[in-house]
Design a protein that fits this description.
This protein folds into three domains: 99 residues, 3-Layer(aba) Sandwich (Rossmann fold); 35 residues, 2-Layer Sandwich (Double Stranded RNA Binding Domain), CATH 3.30.160; 69 residues, no CATH class. The strands form two sheets. A five-stranded parallel beta sheet has the order 3-2-1-4-5, with helices on both faces. Strands 6-7 form a two-stranded antiparallel sheet. Strand 4, helix 3 and strand 5 form a beta-alpha-beta unit. It contains nine helices and seven strands; from the N terminus they run βαβαββαβββαααααα.
Length: 221
């Protein structure tokens, strides 16, 4: 199986999780983190899910799954330990042309979930196409050590620089040598070591006067 790698915008999209145990809780949290409107249906649910429902973060339906739960959904995740129920969710979703993922059953999925490393807006994904989740986990752990929190700051800085350049009506093609120089500089090491003066000096050298790290990062939401 060869999967088409994409990153999906699910902001404000209705998504369903079938199953309220530990796996279902993790699926719901991952959907919430990306801005989805999450419904969980299960006769039982973890305390974490109940608390999330009390806060209005998810809609929790404490009952058995029914095909009607798929009405209007953008995608569904099956996260139960009942194989027959998971297959029914898959079949119901297929008839309705709704994207479906069944936990630990790649052969029943329209999409699979990679191992993820996140550093702010930097998202690195690792997939073995379902062949070895253990290897994907190991590679994720390796990448977590390789890509530290300095990448969060660096990406915030680069985004703020790009936004300001675009606002000043610079031609986008003129930006390429600027960003190439910044990316290939020692700025990541300087962020890691807290050397703001060196970063500001580089920004002045590359961009001119009036570019300060503190000011640029203050613009980051």
């Amino acid at each position: 199986m060869r999967y088409f790698p994409i990153q999906l915008d699910i902001r404000d999209r209705p998504c369903l999780v079938v199953g309220g145990g530990g796996v279902g809780t993790r699926k719901a949290k991952s959907l919430l983190a990306c801005g989805a409107r999450v419904t969980v249906v299960s006769p039982a649910a973890t305390q974490a899910l109940r608390d999330s429902a009390d806060r209005g973060e998810v809609m929790l339906r404490l009952r058995e799954y029914a095909a009607e739960d798929l009405q209007g959904m953008f995608l569904v995740m099956g996260a139960t330990d009942d194989e027959a129920l998971n297959r029914r969710v898959r079949s119901d979703a297929g008839r309705r042309k709704i994207l479906c993922n069944i936990a630990d059953r790649p052969e029943q999925c329209d999409f699979i979930l990679p191992a993820v490393v996140e550093r702010g807006d930097l998202v690195i994904t690792v997939s073995t196409s379902g062949r070895s989740p253990a290897l994907a986990k190991k590679l994720r752990q390796d990448l977590q050590g390789q890509f530290g929190n300095e990448y969060t700051v660096f990406l915030d800085l680069m985004g703020a620089i790009r936004k300001r350049l675009l606002a000043e009506a610079h031609a986008p093609e003129a930006h390429k040598p600027i960003f190439e120089r910044l990316v290939h500089s020692d700025i990541l090491a300087w962020i890691r070591e807290g050397r703001r003066h060196d970063i500001d000096r580089l920004l002045t050298d590359v961009l001119g006067d009036g570019w300060r790290t503190e000011d640029l990062l203050a613009q980051t939401p």
